[in-house]
Amino acid sequence: MKQRPIRVLQLGSPAGLYGAERWILALVRHLDPAKVESVVGVIKDDPGKADPPLIREAAALGFQTVTINAPGRINLSAVRRLRQYIFANKIDILHTHWYKTDMIGFLAVMGTRCKIISTPHGWSKEAGFALKCYEMMDRMIFPWLDAVVPLSPELYAGLEKKFFVKKKLTFIQNGVDITEIQACKNVHPQLIQWKEQGFFILGYIGQLIHRKGLDVLFNALSMLDKNLPWKLALVGDGPLRPFLETLAKDLEISENIMFFGFQGHRLEFLNGFDVFVLPSRLEGIPRCLMEALAAQKPVICSDIPGSAELIKDKKTGYIFKSEDSKHLLQKIVSVSTHHPEAKKMASTGKQKVCNKYSAGRMALAYERLYTQVL
């Protein structure tokens, strides 16, 4: 008798389509459907909002989806509803990707045959007291999960020091959906217009939050030579947007910066960038950086461990000292004035991502893990 595919419920965040959500979509697209049947779900904590972007995107790709409505930060009714769904749909593995889904998922599978795997995508560097407590509680349940798969070597090393977690750890190299990037050839009309007007275009795709270090980038841009015509495209949204808009005005660079907000077709922006900049204070292995490399774009990033895993200075991109706006300024000038060198680095970076960080390679490793935990 032919064995049915392993049924895996990927439980993600109801927020926008950022790194973790893109990661889930890349994984399910590359898992062999003959071996793994994927369901994509979220716990929706705000009933007033529209369908979560992750759910809309997964449904558009043809995957089964589930939205569990449970208003509030921690609502125990989510445990009951998730448990009911697991039983009704014969879910074999619950794969969680966020402190909230980890904790609710852990309670939901207790006493069932369903296994649970967590993929930590990173911890908050400057979290408030409440968030620190939630993340600490998250790590405390790791020893009771069936597997914990940190997204980067740094996350793995941090958890490896915790004796009771160590035996549950598995490292699987992060991956990016290269086929999706190669399939997109379009460039956003606004960026085409900027290019025709002779602007040097810097770009960023991601959340507008403090740990992304965008204030460092703004300070660097305020020191750029007035003879270099430039524009900065910010694709994404977040709570820091009002602060950044005010900062741009104070630094007298607001006319050069456009906030595009969240965009479903982010690759059309990426295709139009002359350089992708990621000035983060903390990252795992950032997907946006991998996507930029896969699109063969010159990149500049801070010298934090997650980014340094991908970028070797003056080989696959440019690295500047974290928080150092003047050093970042030097790197921006280098990219804008040394085009052949920047393009050569971009080509080397693309080759590295294609060889080592493909979503196909990552999916094969997860297929093996799913089989092992069962």
Automatic annotation (TrEMBL):
The keyword Protein transport does not apply. Coiled coil: none annotated. Residues 19-179 form the Glycosyltransferase subfamily 4-like N-terminal domain. This is Glycosyl transferase group 1. It comes from Desulfotignum phosphitoxidans DSM 13687. InterPro entries: Glyco_trans_1, Glyco_trans_4-like_N. Residues 198-351 form the Glycosyl transferase family domain. Keywords: Transferase. One of its GO terms (molecular function) is glycosyltransferase activity.
